[in-house]
Amino acid sequence: MKRTVAASWLLSGAGRAATANQAIAIGDGRIENVTAGEGKGSLVMPALGNAHDHARIARLSQVGSYDVPLEAWLPYLTLLPTVDPYLSSAVSFARSARGGVGAVMAHYTRVQGLTDFPTEARAVAKAARDVGIRMALAVHCRDLNPLVYDPHEKLLAELSPAACECVTRRFLRKPVPAAEQVAMVEAVARDIEGGGVTVQYGPAGVQWCTDEMLRLIGKASAASNRRVHMHLLETKYQRNWADRTFPQGIVRYLDDIGLLNERVSFAHCIYLRPDEMDLIAERGATIVVNTSSNFIVSSGLAPLGEFIKHGCRVAMGLDGLAMDEDEDALREMRLAYNVHKASGFDIRVSQADLMRFATTNGRFAVTGMKDEVLAPGAPADLLTLDWEALSAELIEPNVPPFDLVLAKGVKQHVVDLIVAGRDVVRSGKVVGVDLPALETELLAVLRAKYPTTADVRAAMPELKSALRKHYTGPLYCA
Ligand SMILES: [Zn+2]
User: Fold this and answer.
1) Helix, strand, or coil here: 105?
2) How far is the CA of 1 from the centre of ligand 1 (A)?
3) Region 57-81 average pLDDT
4) Would you tell me which of 328, 385, 403, 421 could form a disulfide with 29, CB atoms 3.0–4.6 Å apart?
5) Is 323 in contact with 295 (CB distance < 8 Å)?
6) Per-residue pLDDT tens for 386-438?
7) CA of 317 to the centre of ligand 1 (A)
């Protein structure tokens, strides 16, 4: 289908000056040409990328898990009842789209489990196609350390019999053998890839996977060229564990087993050391920074400026934990910029860095596409913002348009989101699914089924304090 998008201002990509009154011709999902045209009150920029997310179904405050550090927060996710995976994924992807995101990494750490996994994966893929965003399903692989990063027998002994029974039943199931988990990824990929959907290996993180599993994934990824997405060094406790476990260094270890290359993206990396940044930069892996999430679950602050200084490719992630629990990727972009941009006159993250970080580098992590600019031949992934609203209060007429987006752009300014030439959001509404109706349905299901997790709710205070004791105890004091 051929069409033309009008731009009062076009921000075509990193390091490019804004151009006024442009017409962007689109055909077959790509940009055909960009010529002088008429404005029609819109600012057009590349669609935003969300390179780390989990297709999560609820916000923290909905289940009382706001203000809990990561290691204690993860078990709280079990409070959420299982729901239909199409419903949960469609809500998550549609919210992402409404927030300006055209490409999302669904690191699928929460399997609903109402059916076998291939059936569930098909439902997730259908949700992404119905919404119309590009989606990578990073299939969760995990077979180690189900409760803490260490043996959990001592922690279990701290719990009352009732809490211990619940925790054992809910968290300590025998994992599926590594080879089976890894083989499943290729099978799912053969089944669901296409139409904007791709599949990646999604090992949970080094502390959650056996050496056997990680090596299998390194090998399989090299053989198939399939991309890999995983958590890395999100908290100081993970750093502590990694240093105890890998005397050669955790990043060296990943390099040794084939998991440090251009196909790989790492979420968080808050506790990386400078030499590890150098190695990541050299190998061309991507670091995904999740500023809001890191604040909310008290993990720390990723040194985004340092990553860039060391030459690392960096991308933005929302991790299902946007600052205002609203999946607003424009606000996330502003937060990341304001937190990291400069110290006085020393610029650490330039606007060009930031543009790449928030848009095309995320799409690269999700899809492997390398285009950085809205130019002929590039994928037609465009975000249109309401320029009239953004500029309504201007006094000086020549304020750079990207300054305005960074200063005040929020999802309420999103007019249209076009992905591969197709309307995903039109006039502020998600086109492919009825988001408000799905949200109402999801909330009703979650409330109705909430009693099914009453056992976890009862055990949680004890588990939380045992986890606190574990991570503030002798193992982690050194
Ligand atoms: Zn995450």
Assistant:
1) strand
2) 37
3) 89
4) 421
5) yes
6) 999 999 999 999 999 999 999 999 999 999 999 999 999 999 999 999 999 99
7) 9
Segment 340-369, tens digit of pLDDT: 999 999 999 999 999 999 999 999 999 999
User: What is the distance in A from the centroid of ligand 1 to the CA of 267?
Assistant: 7
**Sign (positive or negative) of CA dihedral 229, 234, 240, 243:** positive
Tokens of 326: 């609203």
Q: Is the pLDDT of residue 59 over 90?
A: no
Rounded CA separation 234/211 (Å)? 19
- Tell me if 97 sits within 8 A of 411, measured CB to CB: no
- For residue 478, is pLDDT > 80? no
* C-alpha 302 to ligand 1 mean position (Å): 14
Instruction: Using the mean position of ligand 1's atoms as its centre, give its distance from the Cα of residue 204 in Å.
Output: 9
The residue ranges of every structural domain in the chain are 48-373+432-477
Q: Is residue 23 packed enough to be buried (19+ CB in 10 Å), middle (13-18) or exposed (0-12)?
A: middle
Distance 344 CA to ligand 1 centre (A): 32
Q: Give the model's pLDDT for residue 1.
A: 75
Encoding tokens for residue 28? Answer: 């077959």
Which CATH number does 48-373+432-477 carry? 3.20.20.140
pLDDT of 217 over the 90 cut = yes
In eight-state DSSP terms, residue 194 is B
Write the burial class of residue 30 (CB in 10 Å: 0-12 exposed, 13-18 middle, 19+ buried): middle
Tell whether the model's pLDDT for residue 44 goes beyond 90. yes
92: Cβ contacts below 8 Å, ≥ 6 apart: 53, 55, 56, 57, 106, 127, 320
Type of residue numbered 84: D
Task: Find all residues with CB under 8 Å of 407, minimum gap 6, and list them.
Answer: 334
Closest CA to 259 of 205, 329, 323, 188: 205
Between the CA of 70 and the centroid of ligand 1 the distance, in Å, is 10
- Report the C-alpha gap between 440 and 259 in whole angstroms: 41
